[in-house]
Amino acid sequence: MNKSLQKHLENYIYDTRNPEVNFYLGVEFEKIRQYASSLTHYLKCAELSDDQLLQYEAQLRIATVFNKQGGRVKSELNALHQAIPLAPDRPEGYYLIADCQRRRAFFTEALMYTRLGKQLPEPVTTLRTDVGFPKEYGFEFEEILTHYHRNGFNTTRSKVVEFLHKYSITDYHRDVLVKFMNEIKLNYYPATYYTKSKIDKLRVGFEGVEGIEKNYAQAYQDMFVLMSLNGQKDGIYLEIGSGDPTYNNNTKLLEELGWTGISIDLNAELVNKFNLERSNRALVQDATTADYGTLLQSTDAIDVVDYLQVDCEPAYNTYQALLRIPFTKYQFKVITFEHDHYTDMNSGIRRASRELLSKLGYKLVVNDISTDRNRSFEDWWVHPDYISEERLKQITSITDDVQLVDDYMYRYL
Question: Are residues 194 and 212 in contact, defined by beta-carbon separation less than 8 angstroms?
Fold first, then answer.
């Protein structure tokens, strides 16, 4: 038994009819998923208390427990309907009902409670626990989803993109929004590009940066490579998942600076376009079965490659490609690996790739990069043997959450 639960059990033994004691004991049981016990004590709290705000929060927690149990949506709604009259000027209950009704596909009711909640002022007092109400964006989130189901998607796409860029949201809301985006076939990532006007704002300068007018990569991958390698020219790259030869391409700028390399992609049409427009060669190959040793032998690399891009769809294929790289024969100065963690947070791809590359001696210098505040899709790595200690410190940024790439690349904007 953990110490916190033991403490609250002891409090309960000596004061069984104390509403707050019952409430906090319910919280402890909920933490360890003893939901029947947590419901018992939340109910006792609501029955015994004369404090309407405490009664209100107990009912919200009861609804939360029913939600966690699954298949008890009517009980969840009943608890929420009992909560609102106890604190009709607070937003949490309205939001939770809106969320519940949306999950039931009762979109008219969801929108009604969303709009009612939006009109309420911010509460003066805070609740004892986190009941799952994201006050910064909760009602806007529900409004986007319910508006789509009632009125179609004419304005929804732009609202979703704006929302993702504006807020940092919880895993639950991110998962809901990703599924919704798949439903409306919205796979748009906002691109963000470098222009010469931003030169003085760059996180780290490098040799030759003054000669760069613009870049092409979607999230500054090309600029990150140059930043890490102090503007190295005449480098060598292996590009797995080359895509379009120019639009959102990570190696176009490098080629313009004299780099050579080999690219592969499964899309024959894009590979054909690549070979028509670019000097360096691309091949139609499956990244999960390609012989990367043979491919690298066709370059000028002996045992060191300056840049490795690994970017396939889905992330499982990206990881399978990573496993085929001949790391025992070649080292890579810079690696960008697309884990697409936001699409499936339970896949384990991000964790597995980090374990593999760390064991091989690579250093994660930028984690969970994104062009908005929610869809972390990529990690950036370097081999510390090829980066100066000072530059390594300058380019390293490890955070606990998604990193907006503009925040990383620039000191101030």
Answer: yes
